[in-house]
Amino acid sequence: MTLRITREERSRSRALLRLEGSVVAECAALLERECLGLLRSGGAVSLDLAGVNFVDLAGVEALERLSRAGVEVRCRSGPVASVLEGEGVRLTRDADDGNDGWP
Fold first, then answer.
1. pLDDT, tens only, 66-83
2. Which of 22, 27, 54, 96 has the fewest CB atoms within 10 Å around its CB?
3. Does residue 56 contact residue 84 with C-beta atoms inside 8 Å?
């Protein structure tokens, strides 16, 4: 199981990280460090989970901490969104219309 992270700068103060694959222990820790570093540098961070197909307990916990820290967690409706919401992760739901919600 692997996680691919693609970083897109939307502006100097706003970054979007697109995730593809599985958010599991080692990957979750790396993702958390990356996001917290971006937040500390004064930027806003959004995670796009549209390409995520599995999240383990460590991943859920990391995403919950990131959400509380101010990272926007974006997810389409489906099993991953249901699990995350069931565990208390605050999500921004994306429509399945191909629009990523960014201007």
1. 999 999 999 999 999 999
2. 96
3. no
